[in-house]
Amino acid sequence: MVLMILQLCIVLGALWVGSRYGSLALGAISGIGLAILVFGFGLKPGTPPTDVIYIIIAAVTCAGIMQASGGMDWLIQMAEKLLRKHPDRITFLAPITTFFLTVLVGTGHVVYTLMPIICDIALKKGIRPERPCGVASIASQVGITCSPIAAAVVAFVSISNANNFDITIPGVLMISIPACLCGLMAAAAASYHRGLDLDKDPEFQKKIADPAQREYIYGSGATTLDKEIPQSAKNAVFIFLGALVVIVFFAIFQNALPSYDTLRAIKGSSPLTINENMSLTADQLVKAKVHMAGMTEWFSKPLAMNIVIQIVMITAAALMIIFCKAAPKKAVSGPVWQSGMVAVVAIYGIAWLADTYFSNYMSEMQAMLADIVKESPWSIAFVFFLVSVLINSQGAVVVAMLPLAYQLGIAGPVLLGVLPSVYGYFFIPNYPSDIATVNFDRSGTTVIGKYLLNHSFMMPGLICVFTSTIVAYILTTIFY
Known about the structure:
It contains 22 helices and 2 strands. By secondary structure, the protein is an all-alpha fold.
């Protein structure tokens, strides 16, 4: 037991140190923890989440190419038109726009261009910018569990199917999207009268009494409306949206996918020496059938959705390069592609480290947590939330913790119901979108806070995640 706790401290220590350095360090420093467990303590290495990593690479490549074509500028421009048309509703409309941008693209890093626009609209309407900015930053991350190409959703589906919970990407979105929208609207409602109005805020009034500060706050305005969007950029968006439609179609109608003959073990037979879901060539199938006569059976297996997503995404990226003047070099230097590759390294290191630890102590954990899981299976939501606070990645939380949850005996519908709880990294305000939002707010009302945890994102974040999780859990009890 002492050794188990010591090794857990090493895992948590690696995650904590990695989160302090941020970016690529989160995955790389997880490698140090992995090396200590494997070489220092002799634990058997776990399995890195290669399927999820491949999907992320394909999805962010496609989204990055769309950004390079100018398609992202068109999406931002349409969002700005909506916000400027209804400036008095900015506290509600801002989180809706950032949420759906993330849903479409699969990453919250696309909203940086929109944040200064939200702040500018609020200032010109006399609304305290902290109100829309705080909840809009939260919404940009909440959308990850509602995107058909986000790592968190794809990983949830893949891991759940492997653990006999037959769920599709549309099945996840039918729960997560309405639940998260309810959470966001609750957070926006709580933010609507948050803090003092600008004309009653003594600190703000003192600040604008200085002509230089007043010019800084009100003098410049951020906008994308003066940018002319070429037709090629719009075509790239249509290709990207078409790819999403194709993915959702195949997720719903998997019978339309090609199928392949594979082998699986007959119940009660001796264990196979091959993976029961492994696709084999014709010669391998013949040999396997001869050597395992009476222990296996033929079955037709449709093409896996993780492969479908990869094929569709890279095909869409290629079409945008050929027909939409998208420069690959520009895509590689863009924030969408770069943030996606950082996520790949983070998930690679974090998930491998977590799987190594948990796979070696699964029986002990099952014994310790059996009563809690039996009485309150929903309490796994607190574990998801706390792990997210440490590792700043919803996809990594799903990949690292969902297999453990299934092995503890928690039912798939329960885990789907608590999926919104994998977002907890707003708790400590060190995530790039939160820091950027503070910097974009020229009024200074969106703040980190003197005591670190009393920041502008805490209240909307807690309300949103709490409400979203409750609503999602209720929906799963109704439909599952």
